Amino acid sequence: MRLTGKKVIALVDEEFEDLELWYPVYRVREEGAEVHLAGLEKGKTYTGKYGVPALAEYAFDELNSKDYDGILVPGGWAPDKLRRYNKVLQLVREMNEDKKPIGQICHAGWVLISAKILDGRTVTSTPGIRDDMENAGSIWKDEAVVVDGHIISARRPPDLPPYGKAFCDALAQER
């Protein structure tokens, strides 16, 4: 269990992409890490695009990035909401400053754009937000997974297996 002792934040809001939240969460847990689901409201059940629920164990405002080793940002329509919360952007910026693994898939790139951490970074996303990613200063690639230092990005659900592995690999290396 190479990730024993590691703690990860998984962000949630309404209409997250079900697989893009749960697959990485379970993948990280399989390797021994503790994952905390966080939403705007602690105790609220958020519903994915396909109806899968996710209970927020913590509110964003309760979290301190120093207590965590990485963060997962799911895709779906949730990122368009998540990027509007100052605390979410603060957490992502602090994780970036501390070079802790940041996992983003599909539309999750919107959160990293709003956190203003993509300038000069090489990433991928759903092709639908390629222009947004490039306009934020990133170098966009049409690849299943792109790892640029501590930022791990993927395009869409079929890319989940290599994305989950790449995020776990980065988390295992994080000190």
SSE order, as H and E?
A: EHEEEEEHHEHEHEEEH
> What is the distance, rounded to the nearest whole angstrom, between the alpha carbons of the first and last residues?
16 Å
CATH-defined architecture: 3-Layer(aba) Sandwich
Beta-strand segment tally = 11
Shape: globular
What is the CATH topology descriptor?
Answer: Rossmann fold
* Overall pLDDT score: 97
Strands side by side in the biggest sheet: 5-2-1-6-7-11-10
Explain briefly what this protein structure is:
Residues 6-167 form the DJ-1/PfpI domain. Helix content is 32%, strand content 22%.
Task: Indicate the topology.
Blueprint lengths: L6 E5 L6 H13 L3 E6 L5 E3 L5 E3 L2 E2 L10 E4 L4 H5 L3 H12 L4 E4 L3 H6 L7 E2 L6 H6 L3 E2 L4 E4 L2 E4 L5 H14 L2
Parallel strand pairs: 1-2, 1-6, 2-5, 6-7, 7-11, 8-9
Antiparallel strand pairs: 3-4, 10-11
Structure description:
Helix content is 32%, strand content 22%. The chain has 175 residues and is α/β, with parallel strands linked by helices. The chain has a single domain (7-172), classed as Rossmann fold (3-Layer(aba) Sandwich). α1 links the parallel β1 and β2.
Question: What are the salient characteristics of this protein?
Answer:
Class_I_gatase-like, alpha/beta, glutamine amidotransferase, 6 helices, DJ-1/PfpI, globular, 175 residues, 32% helix, two-stranded antiparallel sheet, Rossmann fold, 11 strands, seven-stranded mixed β-sheet
